[in-house]
Amino acid sequence: xxxxxxxxxxxxxxxxxxxxxxxxxxxxxxxxxxxxxxxxxxxxxxxxxxxxxxxxxxxxxxxxxxxxxxxxxxxxxxxxxxxxxxxxxxxxxxxxxxxxxxxxxxxxxxxxxxxxxxxxxxxxxxxxxxxxxxxxxxxxxxxxxxxxxxxxxxxxxxxxxxxxxxxxxxxxxxxxxxxxxxxxxxxxxxxxxxxxxxxxxxxxxxxxxxxxxxxxxxxxxxxxxxxxxxxx
Length: 232
Known about the structure:
Blueprint: E1 2-15, E2 20-33, E3 37-41, H1 48-55, E4 63-70, E5 74-77, H2 83-92, E6 94-97, H3 109-118, H4 124-137, H5 154-166, E7 172-176, H6 184-199, E8 203-207, H7 211-214, E9 220-223, E10 228-231
Parallel strand pairs: 3-8, 3-9, 6-7, 7-8
Antiparallel strand pairs: 1-2, 1-4, 4-5, 9-10
Helix pairs in contact: 3-4, 3-5
């Protein structure tokens, strides 16, 4: 079953102050079946993050189509669905992990992960149990569980970000350099969760500069420099 299909996708950005338009990416095409993992590689500035942000619709795509097989809405074009539909998909079906943590102030690490689980309709007892398992798995120090993450290091914030996204077990998970500031031991933990999600049917698209991390993980690799999809 095809979970995600990107067809002739392109994105431009306009600088209104300078009155200039720049083509960030164009003619991007790939297809992913349920449970597959696509890795995107390429030099900095080649448009890797633009693709992920357009799938998540942080950026509004302006060329081509992005088809997603939604559990609730069926096959939809993410470039055309309503904001209300997109908000639902972000909450229930599509996860996004970036290098940066942007969360509500005065919310502890434990509460952030619990809230992610509660959004999926789980009970408070399940949310509490699963949140503790996730925080422990990603080795976030127990004394940080009930603290506000604005004081955390970059690596601690990233581990929390990954925990919040993966506990929801989304149909589609987008990973924007999720291991950028992690040590080797933390990278192994991330890989374990990715493999577990993949085996349970989650479809993934990820950007990694650490090519070794991607070995034996990706089914396909999209090379931004060659504009070519390769079977891993």
